[in-house]
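Re: beginner question about structure tokens

> Can someone show what the tokenized structure looks like for a real chain? I only ever see the sequence side.

Sure, here's an example I had lying around. Input first:
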Amino acid sequence: MTVISKDFHVLDTALGPVVFHAPSYRLFQVDEETAERVGAAESMTDEELERLQKTLIGKTDGHQAFRPKTSLLGDHAQLNGFYLFVSQQCNLACTYCYGDGGEYRKNKMNMDETTARNFVDRFLTGESPTYVVNFFGGEPFLNFSLMQKVVAYAKEKGKERGFGCRSR
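And the corresponding structure tokens:
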């Protein structure tokens, strides 16, 4: 993965090069030339970077310096599947763990309620017929009180916005 700024990442995939735009959570399949130019962004001017962002996220000014093939999520697709990383703590210490056996480089942090509420406010809009939120972590149940608050808040916001929520 090549990071061109905190906003763009170039990924080599089976589909070919793909650009991920972090703020909009959009993926774009791009041609090789565009991938190379995005990868060379460290040498781009601020104007060129701005043009890239406008082109990829659909705010073009008519100047096509970059050529995205397609948005992999579609022009009007809404995100509807999420992993909410609520805890970096774990009490299992599995030897195969991707999080250093549950140690996470000693940064055993938990998501706070403000961050979780911001997630619900931003992504559970009611524009999608279904949302799936997976609580993830180390061991997410070590932050069970936040999980309960997220479910309750999502149900409250769903009622306000005209859609239902259920938990399994």
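Each token stands for a local structural state, so reading them left to right follows the chain. Residues 2-71 form one domain.
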